[in-house]
Design goal:
Strand content: under 5%
Distance between the termini: 49 Å
Subcellular location: Cell membrane
Order of helices and strands: HHHHHHHH
Helix content: over 70%
Protein name: Major facilitator superfamily (MFS) profile domain-containing protein
Organism: Vreelandella olivaria
Low-confidence stretches: 146-154
Keywords: Cell membrane, Membrane, Transmembrane, Transmembrane helix
Main location: membrane
Number of domains: 1
Number of strands: 0
Largest sheet: none
Mean pLDDT: 75
Shape: elongated
Length: 154
């Protein structure tokens, strides 16, 4: 049980990292996306908004609609939606379809962790790393924001 618990902690941490990367990697590509689709940088930046808005607003609705006793199925569905939407985003031929697929990826990303975390074993059986996951995630986000805005401020 300990090995399976440890593996699940690493998989959830990897998933959280992938979700963080997927939600903010677009910001670094804004000039390239603007050039590729012949839109302004401000318009290209709306892709970040589409992802995060769908993540924040769509995921609670989807989680509420899926039955609670089917967590593994919900997690697999979320992963499939996230993966397919990101592949479709990469293959998008126009800006509107790219924006739609980024929003779909946001919904998929938004319900991966809510479905993954309850699949963990009880707290007393969990490695101590998972107990620190929320605080390390918060520190990672703070460092990322500081790193992203430091060149602008400096």
């Amino acid at each position: 049980m300990a090995d399976q618990s440890r593996l699940s902690v690493y998989l959830i941490a990897l998933g959280a990292f992938a979700l963080g990367m997927a939600s903010y990697v677009t910001a670094g590509l804004i000039p390239l996306i603007g050039d590729a689709f012949s839109v302004s940088d401000a318009t290209a930046a709306q892709l970040v908004t589409a992802f995060t808005l769908a993540y924040g607003l769509g995921s609670p609705v989807v989680v509420a609609l899926l039955p609670g006793h089917r967590q593994r199925l919900g997690l697999l569905l979320a992963l499939a939606v996230f993966i397919v939407a990101n592949i479709a985003s990469a293959l998008a031929t126009n800006f509107v379809s790219l924006a739609v697929w980024r929003a779909v990826a946001g919904v998929g990303a938004g319900f991966i962790l809510p479905w993954a975390l309850p699949l963990q074993p009880p707290s007393r059986q969990r490695p101590s790393a998972v107990k620190r996951l929320p605080s390390s995630w918060a520190a990672w986000r703070a460092a990322r924001y500081w790193g992203a805005y430091q060149p602008v401020a400096g």
